[in-house]
Amino acid sequence: MDNGASSYLRFLNDDKEGFVELVKEYKDGLVLFLNCYTNDIHIAEEAADETFLKLYVDKPKYKSEYSFKTWLYAIGKNTALNYIKKHRKHRFEPIEDYYYLSDDIDIEAEYIQNEENLRIHRAIRNLKKEYARVLYLVYFEDLTNSETAEVMGKSLKQISDLIYRAKNALKSELEKGEQNG
Questions:
Q1: CATH topology assigned to domain 1-109
Q2: What distance in Å separates the CA atoms of residue 5 and residue 13, rounded to the nearest whole number?
Q3: Which CATH class for the 112-181 domain?
Q4: Which of 144, 135, 145 has the alpha carbon at shortest distance from 165?
Q5: pLDDT tens-digit profile of 39-72?
Q6: Model-level pTM greater than 0.70?
């Protein structure tokens, strides 16, 4: 039992510390992954919080044929997509919310520390959403192709093809950035 499964099972057996460990271990990565769907870090944070709330309240059964991270990210993806559908109408926010944006912690900058990874991360943002998602899961979250297929709801062949096309698109984007930079 690796990858968070033991912490989740401890939580299911009334050890609240197990849940705290899950949130600490997976929240930042889950938020960044969900941001690939929402294009808004604040909505991604809300969707991640809602995902953890589902775990805490509903206590869904963990299927051990998948890694815990794969299972959690699939729940997170579905939660984010449902959130987007539910809040599809225009969101109006008070202008006061924008005065202090510079005070917000940039978790992306904390997560991606060295300059080369930051350059790659910026290039990934310019790719098609599906390319960004598959690259993020495989290279930043270290999921296997089969785990990525499970999270994205695609076949293993589709993931292999998608990774190939995404890597070529990323290479082109990075080359374009070098020419402009």
A1: Rna Polymerase Sigma Factor; Chain: A (1.10.1740)
A2: 12
A3: mainly alpha
A4: 135
A5: 888 999 999 999 999 999 999 988 788 889 999 9
A6: no
